[in-house]
Amino acid sequence: MADEAPQTHSGFDRTLLQRMIGQSGDRETLETKCETLAEVAAMSLSLQAAETIGVPIEVEFDAFEIGSKSELTGSFPDHVTVCAAQIGGWTSDITLCGSNIFVIAVMECMLGGSLPDDAKIEPRELSAIELDVATVIFRQLADSVRMGIASPPTDDVVTDGALAELPEPLEDEADPPSIMLRFELTVGPIKAPFCAVIAQRPILKATIVEHKEEKPPMRERPEWATKLTTQVSRSHILLDARIALSEITLGDVARLQIGDVLPFADEGAVRALLSAGDKQLFWCEFGKAGDRYTVRVQEPHKHDQELMRELAAG
């Protein structure tokens, strides 16, 4: 029993010392400041992410938690990607995490595909370009937190590349008292969690922007976002050209035999409908060049110019 008393006393002294030197604060003060910060960040993120990525995203503040950094990062849900971030002039200790399923869904949208149902997306590790998309979202999340800090003055956000898992902490690495802001991000039918773990000290020292209903000003599209859009636009995507055949009855289909010939529906020049995913893009003329069959683009499908602008935007 004599050996246990110093440990308890030491634990009490450490907690008290953290409070005295401003490393930690009481839950009520932290929660009040963090809820205001999270509301501002959520509104900003929904606007900034949609502007940068080109996909409508809804963001809601979900929960606030308190604990040590290791406890909070250890509570991250399964199938997430993580990212370290810092906000110049304020804190260099931010850890972010986000759902892989959400990133996969956003990637589908950026490539011009449709939004799949949640049940159709199997959680998996992200590809290299999907990790780039995750890094974009993380940077937007960190920048949205930055916009909620009224003082001290803050500088640009810096983020590391997104990773499949947290790196092992160094032996002498600090484990400061921290808070976690949990957000729910929605894109189409997909809802998924994103979290931000921040040390308590900068939160306690900061003055938080008063939450207002009006939208924060949009920022200029940054260079890294343009580069990512270019990278996505260079990604390979399967094109599908379909040619309509003449109509026959279901009975005729049941009697089809090997060697039967079915005519195209078009008489004269044959047209094919060019698609990417479920997006119908162009009417094309069917033909042949050398030993290969080809299609020649003629006109947009139903002259859907808005669709083409969407695809070009990435």
Summarize the structure.
The chain is of the alpha+beta class and 314 residues long.
List the helices and strands and how they pair.
Blueprint: H1 4-20, H2 27-53, E1 58-68, H3 69-74, E2 80-87, E3 91-99, H4 100-110, H5 128-146, E4 149-151, E5 157-159, E6 177-187, E7 190-199, H6 200-205, E8 207-208, H7 223-233, E9 239-243, H8 250-254, E10 271-276, E11 279-289, E12 292-300, H9 305-313
Q: Keywords, please?
A:
Surface presentation of antigens (SPOA), alpha+beta, single chain, 314 residues, 2 domains, Chemotaxis protein chec, six-stranded antiparallel beta sheet, disordered C terminus, 9 helices, 12 strands
- Unreliable spans are 1-11, 307-314
Pattern of helices and strands: HHEHEEHHEEEEHEHEHEEEH
Strand order of the largest sheet: 1-6-7-3-2-5
* Percentage of β-strand residues: 25-35%
At the fourth CATH level, what is the homologous superfamily of the largest domain?
A: CheC-like
Class derived from helix and strand content: alpha+beta
**Count of individual domains:** 2
